[in-house]
Amino acid sequence: MNTLELLQTISLGEDSEHQFKRTFTNTESLAAEMVAFSNGNGGIIFVGVEDNGSVCGVDFRDIQRINQLISNVASQNIRPAINPTTQNISTDKGIVIAITIPKGNNKPYQDKDGVFWIKSGSDKRKATAREEIKRMFSGDESLHADEQAVSGTSIDDLDLEYFIRYFDENYKIPLNKQSLPVKTLLHNLKILKDDALSLTGALLFGKDMEHRIPLATVKAVTFVGNSMGDTQFIDKREITGKMIDIYREAIVFFHNNLRLIQVEEGFNTPGQLEIPLAALQELVVNALIHRDFFVPASIRLMIFRNRIEITSPGHLPNTLTTESIKYGISAKRNSLLSSFAIHILPYNGIGTGITRALEAYPHIFFEDDRVGNQFKVTIARPEIS
């Protein structure tokens, strides 16, 4: 970064990836800033810049001290250690030290006191919620929600009859002819973890799981008007059960609450849903499989007079955008769940569901809400006289 690039960058003010500091004198303050950047998308700390963006510069005698402080903090006060780089940039008001902290590959990071710091806009704060810390693991692929054990469950919570049918239909050797004990086989398939059902096992093969994993419940409402604040609704239900049951009930909910359109002449010709069924199926499956299970919220299906909204907990993974998903670019958040869902739901696992939904019905819009940590699909309903 040269002087001109430095001045252009700081003229834009602080944000989630750029922080201004007059100087650093203690290790705790510097460690907190570096931990927050490492747990986020990385960033640059400019030392020698006031909060208002004016350059005050760093005294030449302080450069060696600050660089030594950075090295000590990165290796001794942050767990796991990080590797920032520094650059001294000359300005007419003094030298500015640019500390570049890369996005961490071993999240989550913490300071020597065990505090997890995260970015919150241009500032930082402590990560206190268990879900926030888990998501940091998840974003680095160190922890997968769909593989975690569901507390309080056991093999007795498995719908064994349903699992046997699934196994016999999808594997060459029936379950009762396997050489391995059933419990060992379930562990190998990651349906059991530590003698409890994994989240994947509970979602796909569990019995009465709505009390153990209430976030798996889908909330469906049909409003009279176009506002979520309306107190009147036509239909309201909580959809529970195995994932295949939830999928089927969600489609029934659409059948019961959307209009039928007469597409062919003839009074007795059956009508078709105003939104093509193929599009609805793809979008429901996408929500069920790719939601973020570290976010303690339910999927919402909302039908309004002029639109349908399908809201999933969790924003898109960092590698995806609302534009890239339209072209079949995908990143699996729940790989284990996806591997089983291929055999249970109308899902092929190759990331083309959004593309097929748009081909069936192009009036679909996507919102990746990173602040609210949710992904919303809005489907415009056709105007019918």
Would you write up a description of this structure?
It is a single chain. By secondary structure, the protein is of the alpha+beta class. The protein contains 11 helices and 18 strands. The chain folds into 3 domains: about 5-140, Schlafen, AAA domain (Methyltransferase, Cobalt-precorrin-4 Transmethylase, Domain 2, 2-Layer Sandwich); about 145-210, no CATH class; about 215-380, Heat Shock Protein 90 (2-Layer Sandwich). It has helices at about 5-10, 25-40, 60-75, 130-140, 160-170, 180-190, 200-205, 245-255, 275-290, 335-340, 355-360, and strands at about 20, 45, 80, 85-90, 95-100, 110, 115-120, 125, 190-195, 195, 220-225, 235-240, 260, 270-275, 300-305, 305-315, 365-370, 375-380. The strands form 6 sheets. Strands 12-11-15-16-18-17 form a 6-stranded mixed β-sheet, with helices on one face. Strands 1-2-5-4 form a 4-stranded mixed β-sheet, sandwiched between helices. Strands 3-6 form a two-stranded antiparallel sheet. Helix 9 (about 275-290) runs antiparallel to helix 11. The longest helix has 17 residues, at about 60-75. It is globular. The termini are far apart.
Our measurement of the CA-to-CA distance between the termini, rounded to an integer number of angstroms, reads: 61 Å
Structural class: alpha+beta
Count of runs of 4 or more consecutive helical residues: 11
Number of domains: 3
Strand order, main sheet: write it out: 12-11-15-16-18-17
Helical proportion, percent range? 25-40%
The general outline is globular
Q: Name the CATH architecture of the largest domain.
A: 2-Layer Sandwich
- Reported by name, the CATH topology of the largest domain is Heat Shock Protein 90
- The rounded Rg comes to 26 Å
Let me know the average pLDDT.
89
How would you characterize the largest beta sheet? 6 strands, mixed
Q: Bin the strand percentage.
A: 15-25%
- Please give the number of β-strands: 18
CATH class value of the largest domain: Alpha Beta
Unreliable segments (pLDDT under 50, ≥5 consecutive)?
none
Order of helices and strands: HEHEHEEEEEEHHHEEHEEHEEHEEHHEE
